[in-house]
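User: Can you model how S-adenosylmethionine sits in this protein?
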Amino acid sequence: MKKNKISKDWVNKQRRDIYVRKSKLEGYRSRAVYKLKEIDNKFKIIKNGIKIVDLGSAPGSWSQYLSEKSKNSMIMSIDLKEVVGIKNVNHLIGDFLDEQNQVKINNFFCDKLDLVVSDMAVNTTGNKNLDAISTGELTINAMKYSIKNLKKTGCFVSKIFMGSTFNEIVKNCKKNFKEVKIFKPPSSRKDSKESFIICKIIR
Ligand SMILES: C[S@@+](CC[C@H](N)C(=O)[O-])C[C@H]1O[C@@H](n2cnc3c(N)ncnc32)[C@H](O)[C@@H]1O
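Assistant: Here's the modeled complex, given as structure tokens:
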């Protein structure tokens, strides 16, 4: 498909989408917020007074929700892009795959984490299989980081794409966490290969 056609389709989809309209009315920066809300409603992942990392956070709707929902918590977000300031959220601009940035995150907390959420995704190319592979690499890195840095009672939530890396990620999560669930939130577009993996309690 030509690039112009893809962006026209995208603009039309956005206009028709009820979650886009709702996010504007409710003051969220992206429709993505409803995916995190739906995950939280079902799996109760967000508590008060905890240490949270938000991976791939721009434009910032997940961070907005984390900041509202989690009182007296320490929250750090990271994205390749800048994020306009959000109350109680410390943003790092950079590549999560760069180990130095992971060290910066760990130095900020000086402790193990309670919750890692990742909505990281590469820019879509129009080739859904290729996008799933590239985003799969991001999920694998988020998973490895979480296994190393979460408290025993910690929780890891990540976007996961149906594709060649799906089984490997689920297998690894099951090996390292006691509870592993796959969930496609109702607000996640039906035609997207995206689901979310929710992992609790390190083995
Ligand atoms: C779907 S958007 C996230 C939306 C966000 N959760 C929100 O609610 O506003 C995916 C983000 O992942 C980021 N991303 C992709 N690769 C990354 C990497 N290696 N390190 C950090 N962020 C990355 C992109 O820049 C993009 O902003």
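A couple of observations from the model: The chain has a mean pLDDT of 94. The longest strand covers residues 150-161.
User: Helpful, thanks.
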